[in-house]
Amino acid sequence: MLYNGAYDGEALCFKAGGFQMLNHFSVIQADRLSRVRVEEGAMPRLEYLWLEDCKSLKEIPPGVEHLSNLKRLGLVNMADELTRTINGGSQDENYLRVKDVPSVFVGQRTNEEGFSGHFL
């Protein structure tokens, strides 16, 4: 988990063969993060990915579609451009990257423990 500014970089790249045992991964309040890429073969057991308050991230990370075990994706307090395009429907590139994920939540944090939003 990268939380509360623990990561201050602009890019993350998950290399093929990396993080073989990782099941859950969260990135919260990474203000400068604008690019994430997941290479095919990275994080093969990842089931849960949570991205929150990453306002500079304008697209679903390329390669997310390779995470074949991904069951849940949370996108909370993200850039308007990202949330608008993922809600745009079946022809948008952001939507196409997550169309096979069983549970995708897009929303806002309303307080310390609550959320408002919807599932795709």
What does this structure look like?
By secondary structure, the protein is mainly beta. The chain is 11% helix and 29% strand. The protein has helices at 80-86, 93-98; strands spanning 11-14, 24-28, 35-38, 48-52, 72-76, 103-109, 115-119. A hairpin with a 5-residue loop joins β6 (103-109) and β7. The chain is globular and about 35 Å long. It comes from Trema orientale. This is LRR domain containing protein. InterPro entries: LRR_dom_sf.
Helix content: 10-25%
What's the N-to-C terminus distance? 24 Å
Q: Mean pLDDT score, rounded?
A: 91
Gross geometry: globular
Strand count, sense and barrel status of the largest sheet are: 5 strands, mixed
Please write the string of helix (H) and strand (E) elements.
Answer: EEEEEHHEE
The total strand number stands at: 7
Provide the gyration radius in Å. Answer: 13 Å
Alpha-beta content class: mainly beta
InterPro entries: LRR_dom_sf (IPR032675)
Protein name: LRR domain containing protein
Organism: Trema orientale
Please outline the helices and strands.
Layout: E1 11-14, E2 24-28, E3 35-38, E4 48-52, E5 72-76, H1 80-86, H2 93-98, E6 103-109, E7 115-119
Parallel strand pairs: 1-3, 2-4, 4-5, 5-6
Antiparallel strand pairs: 6-7
